């Protein structure tokens, strides 16, 4: 472990023998640990409840509450705290009992090699607590992230343009064309729109909603739209729609060829304008593909 981390380690020494208690305290403080002490298990448990240490070193035999009783109480109150049991009369059975109850380690007194048998064991116990705490925090972060992703997924499934468009296409695949067109208008939530289809080298308004079609006046040259990557064009045009001169044009390409155009009044004040534009674009692409397929060709040159 990096020695610079030692000052962050809080150690509680619970020992009824004042000589051993002070010896552990002085040595660990000299090595850079933060150390507090308690004279028995009851006092030790009170200190754990006030402030959780990283590691507790508990004597096996103490008045009022022994080391095993303290271990049980700590694991009930603060299971992440690592407990090291120290005993001058250690037996294999007592050591196994302590380990079964959740002790990190079991050391024998007197401790001869303080570096190996005390400092190293305490350091390793603190490392495990840190790793467990980090793991729990990361698991919590991961669960929160997964929850947010799931919520976002639900929102998209319930209301995303892609989901709506695909659902609409599936349900409308066998619908009569006129009913399908009406369904398109409803799904787009546009009070006014013009839908153009290609004939030779021009685009002619074929379907409309709340707009009077003048085919000669409103036809558009295909040469004005040459980039299949163009998603939307904002233009000013008087007379096309009653309530707005700001128009959004969505060029509709199929296999790299311009096949249609969707014109709708802009909604500059709508806080959801961008998502609405995405929805219009999605439905327009599906609509032109569906209509071209209905006509029996991907490029209807006869209207």
Structural summary, described in words:
- With 303 residues, the protein is an alpha/beta fold.
- It has two domains: 3-137, Response regulator (Rossmann fold); 163-294, Beta-Lactamase (2-Layer Sandwich).
- It contains nine helices and eleven strands.
- The protein has helices at 18-30, 41-50, 67-77, 92-100, 114-159, 161-172, 177-188, 215-218, 273-294, and strands at 10-14, 34-38, 55-59, 82-87, 105-108, 193-199, 202-209, 220-221, 233-236, 246-254, 257-265.
- A six-stranded antiparallel β-sheet has the order 8-7-6-11-10-9.
- Helix 1 links the parallel strand 1 (10-14) and strand 2 (34-38).
- Helix 6 runs antiparallel to helix 7 (177-188), helix 6 runs parallel beside helix 9 and helix 7 runs antiparallel to helix 9 (273-294).
- The longest helix is centred in the middle third of the chain and has 46 residues, at 114-159.
- The chain starts with 9 loop residues before the first strand and ends in a 9-residue tail after the last helix.
User: What's the architecture of the largest domain, going by CATH?
Assistant: 3-Layer(aba) Sandwich
N-to-C CA distance: 78 Å
Uncertain runs are 296-303
- Counted up, domains total 2
Strand content: 15-25%
In this structure, how is the largest beta sheet organized? Answer: 6 strands, antiparallel
Which structural class do you get from the secondary structure elements? Answer: alpha/beta
Radius of gyration: 38 Å
Strand order of the biggest β-sheet: 8-7-6-11-10-9
CATH-assigned fold name of the largest domain: Rossmann fold
- Taken in chain order, the helices and strands follow as EHEHEHEHEHHHEEHEEEEH
Give the total of beta strands. 11
User: Mind telling me the CATH class of the largest domain?
Assistant: Alpha Beta
Average pLDDT value?
A: 78
The backbone outline, from C-alpha atoms, is rod-shaped
**Helix content, binned percent:** 40-55%
Q: In terms of quaternary structure, what is this?
A: single chain
